[in-house]
Amino acid sequence: MKLFFHCILLAPFYSLGQSAADQKFVQEVVTIHSTKEGLPEGKISRITLKNNKPVATVTGKTVQFHEGKWMSVPNEKPVAYAGLPVFSQTKILTAVPYRDGYAIGCEEGLYFFKHGKKPERIFPKDNQYSWVLRNVAALVTDSKGRLWFGADEGAGYLDGNKWKLFTGKEGLPYNQFTCAAAGPEGIVWFGTKKGAIEVDNDEFKYRFSRRWLPDDQVNTIAVQNDNGTAWIGTDKGVSQIARVSLSLEEKAGLFTKQVEQRHNRMGFIAQSHLKEQFNVATSEVAISDNDGMYTAMYGAAQAFRYAATGDPEAKVLADRSFKSCKWLVDISHEKGFPARVIVPVDWPEPVNEIYSREANLRHQQSDPMWKDIYPRFPKSKDGKYYWKCDTSSDELAGHFFFYGVYYDLVAKTEEEKQAVRDVVGDITDHLVRHGYKLVDHDGKVTRWGDFSPEYINSVYGYDQRGLNSMMMLSFLNVARHVTGDKKYEQEAKILRDKYRYHINAMHPKEFFPPENVVPWDNNLCLMSLYGLINYETDPSLLLMYRQGLEVAWQHIHKQKNAFWDAIYASLANRFTQQADHKMFENKGLFPENRLYSSKVVSGHYKGNYRVDFILENLQKIPLDLIGYTMDNTHRLDVVFDTSPMQEKNIGWHVNGYALPIDERGHVRQDRDGFALLASEGDGHDEHEGTFFLLPYYMAYYHGLLSR
Questions:
Q1: Residue 310, by phi and psi: left (phi above 0), alpha (psi -120 to 50) or beta?
Q2: Residue 650 CA to chain centroid, in angstroms?
Q3: Residues 6 or more apart in contact with residue 509 via CB below 8 angstroms
Q4: Where is the signal peptide (predicted)?
């Protein structure tokens, strides 16, 4: 049985994933135009298309975009609609030709007008709403002949004689309209005082913040009919949003190139720093507290890629990532202690001065748990490098997740496999030797590296009880699987029988109170569950861990996070396969409760996930991974979390799920998708493409993209 289910885990899915990998979708790509491209400085008041090229009016000057530059052209007068009626009681805001006349948007309503007739005021009405419109500032007729409007009450369109109306409840994100434009295939763009809104098949896409626009005040929009590119004029420049046909595999190639060009520091993968805000051409490599984890995640992405596609480049990158992670372990003060970071001694930042003893004491004023250790960057034995200590559980989760995947999917020769056995054994032995703790060069446990029974059962460790118990059992399962040494199973048995770690693992993630809930713990939890469940052979424990998986999943399943979804789906599908092969039909599994086994199998037989959410997340991850500040707290289409003690900037879309990833501040897949006000460096950091590559290749390998 053990061999059979292990083969299920390792079986690649070449044919199942191929079509999804190569299927084209629309990727929206942004280019910001400013004075660098020849635009005059000032407010863009008007954009039109001439010979299918944008012409912009900027503070009285007219420029046309040609061969990558904005060139001065003779001024053109705006087209005036002849014969519009004069309103004495209201101001005309906009007008468009419609039905042999005009639709006219006014401060006091919407009017239809034909020459020789009196303007008729229109009151849109559908099954939900009946409106007396105010400030109809946006009107346009789309390519399907529908008349769209934007007003204080909301947006809507007239299709023949039937209205369809939208408010925040129907997904409209904002309602302070300024303009509108039509694109191909019924697509409509609205400009607002805070961003642009793209409407496609009644779905609203909100394009605001520096991720999409140079300024949120949108004054004018023009859309090319041949390719759907939108040219959006703001108070501080022009945004060009192009619709690019792309496949997931092509997108993965772009992100692999991005990582290798701008995020590879001596084989370690992390975010990069931008010396000039928003400018990736000024990128310089940086370090993070979690270099080990992020390098491991990149290595795991390449391991899944290699197993799914056989691409030799993937093996080269996975091998390099493994050697880098192993170097973190080999460089430290004691066998088996993984460093956070390695930098050469001539690294430009004075790392030990930054973390001086005085700085540590100051830090403890706001964070009493901050560890006072010096040096925080000890020097390597050969004197060539500094390595960072106070390693956390994040690092361990990354190491063990990667080592298991690498051992199974990439390591081919006995030499390669032995290298994995060595490093996994070293780390695990360090933990066991120190009573399930990571112990620093000062002889004391690191701040977040305590998995001991004493800590877990203390008042200080109660909130980490489920997560740390589960993680320690996962590390031991990975060690037993990779090394084949039964001593690790004996250690796990002690932790289960004496300290009930397996019971704790059934609740592997805290949900409340909010101060105990951090989003990166979801990464630790799901990554560790992957090793715990995949390498477990005891049917009774698998039933318990399947419940733990569901507990963790229920708290995060509406975040539309492709990485978390892929881990959950792969483990849930494995449980289905095990149930189908009668693995749990042993009536003696739980003699004290004979119904437990059948109840878990029936309740969790199939995973509660949606493949379309994985696909949506992968497609919507922006190609631009600069971290922007995005404030969604003003939106009409969000529901705020009013839970006790919850932050005020937490909420979700009216459909019950997190906002799309290209509309929120976090592009990393280890953040809170419900955070409405978020920043990831405010334009001074670019993040690594791992956050697409890992969920994509993991889902590809496990056959999830074709289901």
A1: left
A2: 16
A3: 466, 467, 521, 522, 525, 551, 552, 555
A4: 1-20
What gap in Å lies between CA 35 and CA 237, rounded to an integer?
Answer: 8
Cα 685 to Cα 275: distance, rounded to the nearest angstrom = 9
First-to-final CA distance of the chain: 26
- Give the list of residues 6+ apart from residue 682 with CB closer than 8 angstroms, or none: 277, 627, 628, 629
Supply 391's token pair.
């390693």
Assign residue 383 a region: left if phi > 0, alpha if psi is -120 to 50, beta otherwise?
left
Using the predicted structure, report yes or no on whether residue 434 has a pLDDT greater than 70.
Answer: yes
Structure tokens at 209: 């913040």
Pairing of strands 283-285, 272-274: antiparallel
| H-state helical runs in 537-628 | 539-556, 562-580, 596-603, 611-620
- pLDDT of 598 higher than 90: yes
Answer whether residue 8 shows pLDDT above 50: no
Strand partners, 400: none
Residues spanned by the domain of 224: 80-235
Tell me how many domains the chain contains.
1
| Residue 146 near residue 163 (C-beta atoms within 8 A) | no
- For residues 568 and 609, the answer to whether their CB atoms sit within 8 Å is yes
CB 398 within 8 A of CB 290: yes
CA distance 483 to 506: 26
Q: Per-residue pLDDT tens for 291-320?
A: 999 999 999 999 999 999 999 999 999 999
pLDDT bracket for residue 289 (50, 70, 90):
very high
> Do strands 237-247 and 283-285 pair parallel, antiparallel, or not at all (unpaired)?
unpaired
Phi, psi dihedrals of residue 37, rounded to the nearest 5°: -100, 10
**188 and 201 in contact (C-beta within 8 Å)?**
no
CATH code of the domain covering residue 218: 2.130.10.10
Q: Confidence class of residue 258 from pLDDT cuts 50, 70 and 90? A: very high
In 3D space, the residue among 478, 494, 586, 580 whose CA is nearest the CA of residue 532 turns out to be 478
Cβ atoms of 471 and 528 within 8 Å: the answer is yes
Q: Is residue 453 part of a domain?
A: no
Residue 579 has pLDDT above 70, yes or no: yes
Using a 10 angstrom Cβ sphere, with 0-12 exposed, 13-18 middle and 19 or more buried, the burial of residue 350 is: exposed
d(C-alpha 406, C-alpha 478), whole Å = 12
- Is the pLDDT at 187 greater than 70, yes or no? yes
Q: How far is CA 281 from the centre of its chain?
A: 23
Q: Is 239 helix (H, G, I), strand (E, B) or coil?
A: strand
Half-sphere exposure of 174 (CA within 13 A, CB side): 26
Instruction: Pull the structure tokens for residue 615.
Output: 């696909």
DSSP alpha helix (H) spans, 382-536: 393-409, 414-433, 453-456, 465-483, 487-497, 501-504, 520-534
- Give me the phi and psi of 659, to 5 degrees please: -60, 150
H or E segment and range at residue 120: strand 120-122
What is the chain's mean pLDDT, rounded?
93
Asked if residue 92 belongs to a domain, the reply is yes
User: CB-hemisphere CA count at 13 Å for 340?
Assistant: 20
3-state secondary structure of 423: helix
**Does residue 398 lie within any of the structural domains?**
no
pLDDT digits (tens, 9 = 90+) for 498-533: 999 999 999 999 887 777 778 889 999 999 999 999
Give the burial class of 593: count Cβ atoms within 10 A of its Cβ; 0-12 exposed, 13-18 middle, 19 or more buried: exposed
Residue 2 is predicted with a pLDDT of 35
Cα separation, 177 vs 196, in Å, equals 9
Determine the Cα–Cα distance for residues 150 and 161; give it in Å rounded to an integer.
Answer: 18
Position 122 in a domain: yes
